[in-house]
Amino acid sequence: MNPEKKKRSAKQKREQLKRAEDGARAHSARIARGRGKKKTTARKKSQAGSGQPAALKLRDDGKVRLNKYLADHGIASRRKCDELITSGMVLVDGEPVVTLGTRIDPTTQTVEASGTVLVPESVLEKRYYLLNKPRGVVCTNESRERKQRAVDLVNDKAKGRIYTVGRLDEESEGLILLTNDGDFAHRVMHPSFGIEKSYRVKLRGQLEGEALARVREGVQLAEGKTGGARVTVRKRGRDYTHVVVTLHEGMNREIRRVFAKVGYKVVSLERSRIGNLTGRGLRSGWWRRLKPVEVKDLLAGAPAPEGKERSQRSRRGKTQGKMKGGRTRVTASRRGAARPSGGYGTKNAAPKKRKRQ
After folding, report:
1. Active site residue 169
2. How many Cβ atoms from other residues are within 10 Å of residue 203's Cβ?
3. What pLDDT is attached to residue 339?
4. Residue in 298, 277, 299, 297 with CA at minimum distance from that of residue 288
5. Catalytic residue of the set 169, 183, 239, 297
6. With a cut of 70, which residues of the chain have pLDDT below it?
7. pLDDT reported for residue 266
8. CATH of region 125-190+282-332
9. What CATH number matches the domain at 64-118, 1.10.10.10, 3.10.290.10, 3.20.20.330, 2.60.40.1180?
10. What gap in Å lies between CA 349 and CA 244, rounded to an integer?
């Protein structure tokens, strides 16, 4: 062999061995920092759905990042919380904190955001509500909002500070969850947990096969291509088409924008199911608290089978009295027309009329 060629070959082997050693050291460092295989195992274990929200992740010193602590209390998204911190609107033990990445001990330190003192999660009682949101109601916690808010419809005196899990736009109606549990909200909203949400949609015009195929495969929007949707046609008429759309994830106003992209206008949109939860017995503007078994099933990501839903509907009269909740009238001045206040299944319900013999 040529000596020069042999020398180059030995040098290449040394470089290859050095790259392998560097890679092994980097992998060990990732595992030491909580990444790599160890983190993957922990993530799969938390997603398995034991029925309880994932515990707040703390380091050995028991501290958590300030922006995450604010987001878990429903103040805003983490990005918005960073803006609040840099603008000096967040106080820790009475002193303003403007440094991003600050970590606090939630058990010993007092945090105040925009004048609101946050209760530590260890003291906070977790609350979960299901609301049938009417049209004209907005999903925001902004105190200066002049329109009626979804959080105001839940008139439980013990609710404390709650916020909506995700959003329904003002013109949409249907089911929405409200809670004060940040980890629960994250697990319900994040697409990796596979919690389905179904919508009843009324479209103007007759939905053709080509447009239907595009919606099912995914449509390119400004944020990227949608993940596709399961679409079932319920009724086709001369002027309108009624469909049921099921999503695992949702961009902002995704359904309206997707159908507009393929040439159809959404006339009405109602969310009819979230995981295993349906709106059975829950009129527009009414709410109820979730049962512990419903929270457990929802976190497990198990949708309600159609047969089970039909059998529950047939036993509606027997089970509605057990639901714990209430209603709030949607004022005509704010929405144009008030919903009827009758109905059964909540503590504020009118007495059921008896049939004459």
Report:
1. yes
2. 23
3. 40
4. 277
5. 169
6. 1-8, 29-61, 120-124, 301-357
7. 95
8. 3.30.70.580
9. 3.10.290.10
10. 30
Q: How many CB atoms lie within 10 A of CB 147?
A: 13
Query: What span, in angstroms and rounded, lies between the C-alpha atoms of 21 and 13?
Result: 12
pTM exceeds 0.90? no
Q: What is the pLDDT of residues 228-243, one digit of tens each?
A: 889 999 999 889 999 9
Q: Could you give the C-alpha distances from 26 to 18, 36, 193, 318, in angstroms and in order?
A: 12, 10, 30, 62
Question: Tokens 């979730």 — which residue?
Answer: 290
Tens digit of each residue's pLDDT (9 = 90 or more) over 91-138? 888 888 888 888 888 778 888 887 778 776 656 688 999 999 999 999
Rounded alpha-carbon distances, angstroms, from residue 88 to 4, 118, 275, 298: 66, 16, 39, 38
Q: What stretch(es) of the chain map to CATH 3.30.70.1560?
A: 196-274
CATH class of 196-274: alpha beta
Q: Which long-range contacts (CB under 8 A, 24 or more apart) does 192-196 make?
A: 192/47, 193/47, 193/49, 193/299, 193/301, 194/248, 194/301, 195/248, 195/274, 195/275, 195/298, 195/301, 196/246, 196/247, 196/248, 196/273, 196/275, 196/303
Report pLDDT for 258. Answer: 92
